[in-house]
Amino acid sequence: MNVLVAKFGGTCVESRANQEMVAERIMEFTDQGLSVVAVISAMGREGEPYSTAELVNIAKKIDPKIEPRELDLLMSCGEIISTATMAHLLKSKGYDTIALSGGQAGLITDYYYGHAQVIDIKPATILRALDDGRIVFVAGFQGITDKHAITTLGEGGSDYTAVAIAVTLAQTPKLPLGEELEVSPLHIYKDVDGVMTANPKHFLDGNKQPIAKLPRPLRSLTYDELCVMSGFGAEVMQHKASQMARKHNLSLVIKNYLSNAPGTEVGPDSQSVGTGPVTGVADLPKLFMFSVRSTSPRLAGQLAAEMRKDRLTHYRVSAPEGQVRFAVKREKYRDVGTMIRRITFERDLDADLSAGEWALVTLVGEGMRNRADRVAKQGGEVLSGAGIETHGDITGDISISFLVEEGQRTEAVRQLHSAFCL
Q1: Phi/psi of residue 55, nearest 5 degrees
Q2: pLDDT at residue 78, as a whole number
Q3: Residue 46 within a domain
């Protein structure tokens, strides 16, 4: 049996017309003899009635504070609605289907509500359904603890669900009745033609007309490029999911569900397709930033450890001597400012904290290995020449990130893209 795991994002299922397109994709795979496990996100984005954001707003209209356990229970409903809907749609077309919650699909997590990690997968129910010839629909973004409490996997968690299931099936040699199992590359479906050299939204005006040369899709990425781009804001794949794919050498392709464009392939043999040192530009908006004055060489590591414990996505940014500075990602459904104040208060530190006024704009590419400093200098000159002030940077093996004011983020992306990616 050849199994294909395919994940469909929220925009793919936000309307009946889009759901019909997804159904066509799944029926095509089935008609080709593939056994399909479809991981489904909640319908649409904020503003759509069954999106995760709108479900959360139901509770926050009563009181903005809600227990994390109950919040996860509420947030899981969006994926369950869309998963049951898609299973029903395919059944109405004559296909045998089954819809499963994350827990029913066997995803066991720890107890960190809102940002749970998968600690075990028990795929027996999925395997039995495949053995029975069913199309399996799994609700993304969620799992269950060993005490049967529902948890969610963080923003973009449906990617995490899909990767975890694909990895588990790839490590399962046979079905319950003894048939050998082969797993095709994981398909991640979005509403763009794969990973782009930059976010196309920055290159359109208010009427969605191009105001500069548009970014282009990338045919191939290395695992490291995928991980860095996802970690610095590119809307390509959840960072935890990309890290898991790299760890297990999972082949995948990121595609447009509306077209037959080849998409972006990532796998053990994937090569960077950048023509120069830079493959693409990523941007991370509306960051919290805090800095503390200290000469302790260990303070930065201690603060980072505290934030890791709270699962706060954070970035240490260069700072003047005698200061430690971090940019912290704005997290949905959590009061990040409160968490930062608690971390610094417990250490008796006075922190300068600003929220939403900062952004990181990042150049990424395998071609930057061993010459990131040179690219950093060039990038800084490009931004300075455009009147964009940088307030710090982060240098990685294949990346350089510039801290800029949020109001200059879009122009910084355009300038760096024009200089390095055209």
Answers
A1: -65, -40
A2: 95
A3: yes
